Structure to design on (341 residues):
C-alpha cells in the first residue's frame, strides 16, 4: 500500500507535451511555434491547411494554445481551425492551453466552442491539467464554463486530487466551491487528503477537512514517509493516533526509516512513544544508528531515547554505533552516556 501511495505524486506526469520538431521547410506549425503572426497570415492566405497535423499529431492551433499565442489562435480559428480536434494522446487545444497556464487562450477556445469536459486518452479533462499545475486563472475560466470538477481519469483521480498534489490552496478552494467532492476515492482507495499528505500540502488538508473530508492512518504514514512535518501536525490535530493503528507501523518508525529529523521532532512533540518497537524489536534509535543517521540519532538521544533496548538479534543502539567506521556516531553515544551519569 505504501509503495502504491508514494507514487501518487508521479500520477500526473503525463502532462508533458512534445515540442514541434524543426523542419527543413517551414510549415504553418513552425510559424506558429515561432510566434510569427505575419508568416501565419501569409501562409493562411496562401492556402495552408490550418488543420494539418505534424509528426507528433499536433495541429497549429494546439501549438498556439500551448504557447499562449492568443492572437495567432484567433487567426487560425477564423480560418477554420478545429477547436475540438484531438491529438493521438486524446488531448485538445484547450487541454494544452490549460496545462500551460494560458488563461486568455483558454477563454478564447471556450468562447469558440471547445468542449470543456472533453477527456484525453488517460481520461483527464482540461480542468485536471490546470489544477495539477496550480493554475488558478484557467481553472476559474473552465469552472465558469461549467467544467465538471468531479470527472475522474481512468484511474479514478479527480481534478481535486490533482490540485492538492500541486499544492495551490486557491485552486483547491475554487474546485471545492464548484462542487468538487472532498471525499472521493481513486481506484486504489486514495482520497484527496491522501494526495495532499503525500505532497505535504498542509493547507490543502485543512481546506478538505472543512468540507467534511476525514484523514486516515494511511495519510499520516504517507506524510511521515515523505518528510512533511507540517502535514503531520495537521493530521494529528485532526485526531489521528500518533502511534498509528493497532498492529500497524508506527509513524515515528516510518519517519525514522526515511531519515526525517523534522518529522520525528513533530511526532515526539505530540507524545509519540520514543522507544516503540517494530516487528524486529528495533526502536527508532536502533534504526537511526544502524543506518548511520547522525542528525536523527542526535535528536533521539537529546529527547531521551533508551540506548540499552535490545532488538530481536540482541543488539542495542550502542552496539550498532560501535561498528567500524562510525566513530562520530560512537562518540555521540559516549557523550550521551556520560551525560546520564
Amino acid at each position: 500500500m505504501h509503495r502504491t501511495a508514494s507514487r501518487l505524486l508521479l500520477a500526473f506526469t503525463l502532462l508533458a507535451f512534445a515540442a514541434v520538431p524543426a523542419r527543413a521547410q517551414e510549415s504553418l506549425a513552425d510559424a506558429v511555434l515561432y510566434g510569427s503572426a505575419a508568416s501565419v497570415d501569409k501562409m493562411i492566405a496562401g492556402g495552408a491547411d490550418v488543420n494539418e497535423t505534424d509528426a507528433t499529431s499536433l495541429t497549429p492551433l494546439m501549438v498556439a494554445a500551448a504557447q499562449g499565442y492568443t492572437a495567432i489562435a484567433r487567426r487560425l480559428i477564423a480560418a477554420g481551425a478545429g477547436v475540438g480536434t484531438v491529438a493521438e494522446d486524446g488531448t485538445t487545444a484547450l487541454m494544452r492551453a490549460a496545462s500551460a497556464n494560458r488563461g486568455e487562450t483558454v477563454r478564447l477556445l471556450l468562447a469558440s466552442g471547445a468542449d470543456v469536459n472533453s477527456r484525453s486518452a488517460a481520461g483527464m479533462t482540461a480542468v485536471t491539467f490546470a489544477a495539477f499545475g496550480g493554475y488558478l486563472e484557467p481553472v476559474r475560466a473552465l469552472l465558469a464554463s461549467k467544467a465538471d470538477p468531479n470527472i475522474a481519469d481512468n484511474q479514478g483521480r479527480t481534478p481535486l486530487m490533482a490540485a492538492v498534489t500541486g499544492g495551490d490552496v486557491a485552486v483547491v478552494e475554487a474546485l471545492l466551491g464548484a462542487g468538487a467532492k472532498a471525499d472521493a476515492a481513486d481506484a486504489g482507495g486514495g482520497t484527496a487528503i491522501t494526495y495532499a499528505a503525500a505532497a505535504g500540502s498542509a493547507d490543502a488538508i485543512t481546506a478538505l477537512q472543512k468540507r467534511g473530508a476525514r484523514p486516515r492512518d494511511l495519510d499520516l504514514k504517507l506524510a511521515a514517509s515523505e518528510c512533511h512535518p507540517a502535514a503531520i501536525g495537521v493530521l494529528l490535530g485532526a485526531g489521528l493516533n500518533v502511534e498509528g493503528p493497532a498492529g500497524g507501523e508506527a509513524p515515528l518508525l516510518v519517519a525514522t526509516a526515511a531519515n526525517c529529523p523534522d518529522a520525528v521532532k513533530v511526532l515526539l512533540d505530540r507524545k509519540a512513544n520514543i522507544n516503540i518497537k517494530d516487528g524486529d524489536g528495533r526502536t527508532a534509535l536502533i534504526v537511526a544508528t544502524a543506518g548511520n543517521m547522525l542528525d536523527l540519532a542526535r535528536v533521539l538521544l537529546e529527547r531521551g531515547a533508551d540506548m540499552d533496548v535490545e532488538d530481536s538479534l540482541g543488539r542495542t543502539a550502542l552496539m550498532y554505533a560501535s561498528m567500524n567506521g562510525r566513530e562520530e556516531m560512537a562518540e555521540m553515544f559516549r557523550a550521551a552516556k556520560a551525560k546520564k551519569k
